[in-house]
Amino acid sequence: MDFYKVIRTRRSVRSFKKEPIPDEVLNRVLDTARVAPSGGNRQPWKFILVKDERLRQRMVAACNDQKFMMDAPLIVVACGQKLPINRGGYMGEMSILLDVSIAFTHLILAARAEGLGTCWIGAFNNKEIKKLLKVPNEYEVVAATPLGYPSTDVFTNPGNRKNLDEIVSLNKF
Ligand SMILES: Cc1cc2nc3c(=O)[nH]c(=O)nc-3n(C[C@H](O)[C@H](O)[C@H](O)COP(=O)(O)O)c2cc1C
Fold first, then answer.
1. Whose CA is nearest to atom 15 of ligand 1?
2. Which CATH number, 1.10.230.10, 3.40.109.10, 3.40.50.720, 3.30.10.20, labels domain 32-146?
3. pLDDT tens digit sequence for 106-141
4. Average pLDDT over residues 74-93
5. How far is the CA of 102 from the centre of ligand 1 (A)?
6. Is residue 41 over pLDDT 90?
7. What percent of the chain has pLDDT over 90?
8. Closest ligand 1 atom, CA of 101?
9. How far apart are the first and last CA of the chain?
10. CA atoms in the 13 A half-sphere facing the CB of 163
11. Quick one: three-class SS letters along the chain?
12. Where are the domains of the chain?
């Protein structure tokens, strides 16, 4: 699929078919996160695939009870390893949010290219998920997404977005 079409038609999907994802498709999608860029090529990430039904139910509870997550056959949880880097002199050890978010964006766009739906989940309880999925102390949860085939045709052009002239400026802010 054309790269720009992937970007334009990726939508947050909140309704999924139960249909499982073939392993080769899932591996292609995951591999795009693997090859993502990261500062110093540190690759400070781990992606946990949550398939088990009981665990997925508990994941939903730890994500503000966003029940639609349960419809998808899989939930992907992106974790980042805290590292002593301080990007821009202000980001502190949370600098790794950048690396993990870039890799997760690869995954989300690749999913779109495969006809799979995702929804970036930012409303979650880090502590609860860490306990549930046995995430080591030196890692934090950065994001999660349900992953599955959408139950309706949701891949439309973006809705409400700012215009380019509102977000781009020349030579000064
Ligand atoms: C960092 C981040 C956190 C988000 N958290 C949630 C969330 O917890 N639940 C949800 O349903 N959507 C969440 N979203 C999806 C946004 O609401 C969505 O991307 C935005 O409304 C634009 O819609 P679109 O993705 O369909 O283009 C999140 C998106 C981002 C980037």
1. 120
2. 3.40.109.10
3. 999 999 999 999 999 999 999 999 999 999 999 999
4. 95
5. 15
6. yes
7. 98
8. 1
9. 35
10. 2
11. CCHHHHHHHCCECCCECCCCCCHHHHHHHHHHHHCCCCHHHCCCEEEEEECCHHHHHHHHHHCCCCHHHHHCCEEEEEEEECCCCCHHHCCHHHHHHHHHHHHHHHHHHHHHHCCCEECCECCCCHHHHHHHCCCCCCEEEEEEEEEECECCCCCCCCCCCCCHHHHCCCCCC
12. 32-146
Q: Residue 159: is its pLDDT beyond 90?
A: no
Residue of 108, 120, 153 with the most ligand 1 atoms within 8 Å of its CB, for mutation: 120
- The Cα 85–Cα 87 span in angstroms is 6
Tell which residue, 95, 39, 104, 116, has the closest CA to residue 77.
104
Round to whole Å and give the CA distance between 68 and 15. Answer: 6
Q: Which residue's alpha carbon is at the smallest distance from atom 3 of ligand 1? A: 122
Q: Using the structure block, give the residue that is written with the tokens 């400026």.
A: 169
On the CB side of 72, CA atoms within 13 Å amount to 28
Quick one: pLDDT at residue 93? 87
| pTM of structure | 0.97
> What is the residue with the minimal CA distance to atom 10 of ligand 1?
121
Of how many residues is the chain composed?
173
